[in-house]
Design brief:
The chain is built from four helices and 13 strands. The chain has helices at about 25-30, 75-85, 135-140, 160-165, and strands at about 5-10, 15-20, 45-50, 50, 55, 70, 85-90, 100-105, 115-120, 125-130, 145, 155, 175-180. The chain is globular.
Length: about 180
C-alpha cells in the first residue's frame, strides 16, 4: 500500500521567515523542483520565537511551508542520504542558526485530477486540492516528490520518511496523511 503525507509545522514550534517580504515569493519560485545548486543565492532569514505573546519551542524544521522545508543541521546529518536522493539541500543566511532549505527535485505527474477533488482558477489551473487521489504506479517507491499540477507544490513524503523523522527524535513537524492507496 502506498501512503502519501504532507509535512506540516507542529503547533507551538518556531517559524522561519525571510528577512525581506519579497523573499516569500522567492521561495515559491526558487524552491520549485528545479535544480538550483549551481545558481543558488542564499536567502536571508530569521527565526520567529514568539507568536501572539506565546514562546515557541525550538524546531528541527522551523516552519515556512510544506513547499520549502527548512532544516537545521541535525536532521540533515541523519537523513541526508535520503534527502539528497530526492532533492538538494541549499544553505540559507541566518545569524542565529545554521539553516537550509530542502528543494525536492523529483517531480511526478502522479495526481489523478479526475478522481481528486480540486478547486480551479478561471484559467483551469488547480488552485487547491481538497481530496487527493494519486496514481500509485507513478509514485512507485519514490519517498519524496512534488507535483507539477500546482504553482507551488507541497513536498510530499512516504511513510519511510515519516518513520525516519520519528526515529531521529526530531521535533517541529507533523505529517498529515493525504492519501492511501
Amino acid at each position: 500500500m502506498t501512503e502519501v503525507y504532507e509535512p506540516i509545522g507542529a503547533e507551538g514550534f518556531e517559524f522561519c521567515h525571510p528577512e525581506r517580504q519579497d523573499d516569500f515569493e522567492t521561495f515559491n519560485v526558487q524552491v520549485d523542483g528545479t535544480r538550483r545548486r549551481a545558481t543558488w543565492q542564499s536567502i536571508p532569514v530569521h527565526l520567529v520565537h514568539e507568536d501572539r505573546g506565546k514562546k515557541l519551542a525550538a524546531s528541527d524544521s522551523p516552519w515556512l511551508g510544506s513547499h520549502a522545508l527548512i532544516l537545521r543541521r541535525s536532521p540533515i546529518e541523519k537523513l541526508g542520504a535520503l534527502l539528497q536522493e530526492y532533492g538538494e539541500i541549499l544553505p540559507l543566511i541566518c545569524e542565529e542558526a545554521e539553516l537550509f532549505t530542502f528543494n525536492a527535485t523529483r517531480i511526478l505527474d502522479a495526481l489523478d485530477e479526475q478522481a481528486s477533488s480540486v478547486i480551479r482558477f478561471s484559467s483551469g489551473r488547480i488552485m487547491h486540492v481538497s481530496r487527493y487521489v494519486f496514481r500509485p504506479e507513478v509514485i512507485g517507491d519514490t519517498d519524496i516528490f512534488k507535483i507539477p499540477n500546482l504553482r507551488v507544490s507541497p513536498t510530499y513524503v512516504s511513510e519511510r520518511v515519516v518513520q525516519a523523522w520519528a526515529s531521529g527524535g526530531f521535533r517541529g513537524l507533523v505529517f498529515n496523511k493525504v492519501w492511501s492507496g
